[in-house]
Design goal:
Number of domains: 2
Strand content: 5-15%
Strand order of the largest sheet: 1-2
Distance between the termini: 28 Å
Radius of gyration: 23 Å
Structural class: mainly alpha
Number of strands: 12
Order of helices and strands: HEEHHEEHEEHEHHEEEEEH
Largest sheet: 2 strands, antiparallel
Oligomer: single chain
Length: 368
């Protein structure tokens, strides 16, 4: 079971990490903005191919090595878990190191060739077009909270029947492997964590709705349609994650209340199903949408011609990863490397939406 989980997860990471350079906008290369006419520069294309090839080859060799080692030698569960996590972490660190290397190479290439010379830089943000926004309404994210509240009430009504030891952690096989002494707080700690996560998802959806729509100066109409579609799909994806988390945490809570549900097969199938659905939906989202909706095909005629280029905003993107702009009212902005959203570290509201819930979750876990 553990081996299957690590192999599936590692394969997913290999595919996504090696594909990222080709899922991004042509004008965003390793966190650096490139004028449209230079997007197909041979050096830029070489950077993308080299990054993908290195991640794919090293990741695949690591996956094969893990499979051969675990099937030809007698390894304990702890050894397998430790090694699997180490390989996954190593692949992510490798990806980050390669990203930073090619980010520096791309930035130097842009500066040496002076690609912005003679081009007027323009930044267009549509802050008024939310009427066309088809993101899910906020109440959709409130509905799963009622499930959590119902489980809280049910747990309280069944408190006397709960075991003396409350499960707090589950291993790769779906079985509890860490417990806490029974108390009113520990009995509902899992549901409190779930509720905080649901509130965080709601906050992300609200903050995303309030963020401006960044338009391409040369493709205003098509980029607007892509951005609106990107926001819609992101909203649906976020809701799917919220629902899946509610199902998983709700199931684990019910197994604590009713020991008859602790069927070995079921305890393995539900978490594994959760993992597979998360990975599959993430892959579909990434390849369907792309960075900022860049892979979404739209049919619209652009009537305007311009010699201007998008404001590169490179000064506000630290290492092309962290966006810091106090003048930008947006709470969330689209990532420059990867698919999805990143917070504006220059807007304090972003810290409240993302980091406060994480701190609360850590506190609940600690005191439980």
């Amino acid at each position: 079971m553990s081996l299957a989980i690590f192999l599936v997860t590692l394969a997913f990471l290999i595919v996504i990490q090696s594909a990222i350079p080709f899922l991004l906008k042509r004008t965003i290369v390793f966190g650096v903005t490139i004028p449209e006419e230079y997007a197909m520069d041979p050096s830029i294309l070489s950077f993308r191919r080299r990054y993908s090839a290195l991640v794919f080859i090293i990741g695949t060799l690591s996956l094969i090595a893990l499979l051969v080692w675990s099937t030809t030698t007698s390894v304990s569960e702890n050894q397998l878990v430790f090694t699997g996590l180490a390989i996954q972490s190593g692949l992510l660190l490798l990806s980050m190191a390669l990203y930073l290397y090619f980010h520096a190479k791309t930035m130097k290439l842009k500066q040496v060739n002076n690609w912005n010379s003679g081009l007027k830089q323009v930044r267009i943000a549509d802050l008024q077009n939310h009427a066309k926004d088809s993101m899910l309404p906020n109440f959709m994210y409130v509905l799963p909270m009622f499930v959590t509240i119902g489980l809280l009430v049910y747990t309280a009504s069944q408190y006397s029947l709960l075991p003396d030891q409350i499960p707090m952690h589950w291993g790769p096989d779906g079985q509890p492997d860490a417990y806490s002494q029974k108390s009113p707080f520990s009995s509902i700690a899992l549901l409190l964590i779930l509720f905080v996560m649901q509130v965080m998802m709601l906050g992300i959806n609200v903050a995303t709705k309030l963020s401006g729509i960044k338009l391409n100066v040369g493709k205003k109409k098509s980029s607007q349609l892509q951005q609106l579609a990107f926001r819609k799909y992101s909203s649906w994806f976020l809701l799917l994650i919220t629902i899946l988390l509610t199902i998983l945490f709700g199931f684990l809570q019910l197994t604590t209340i009713d020991g008859a549900l602790q069927n070995e097969t079921l305890m393995m199938a539900v978490p594994l199903g959760f993992l597979v659905l998360i990975l599959v939906s993430s892959a579909i989202y990434a390849f369907k949408v792309g960075q900022g909706g860049s892979r979404i095909v739209v049919s619209v005629e652009e009537n305007e011609t311009t010699s201007a280029t998008d404001d590169d905003m490179d000064d506000h993107w630290k290492l092309g990863v962290f966006y810091v702009n106090k003048q930008d009212p947006s709470i969330f902005v689209e990532k420059r490397f990867g698919i999805g959203w990143s917070i504006n570290f220059g807007n304090p509201i972003g810290y409240l939406v993302l980091f406060v819930p994480i701190i609360i979750i850590l506190l609940i876990s600690f005191f439980a």
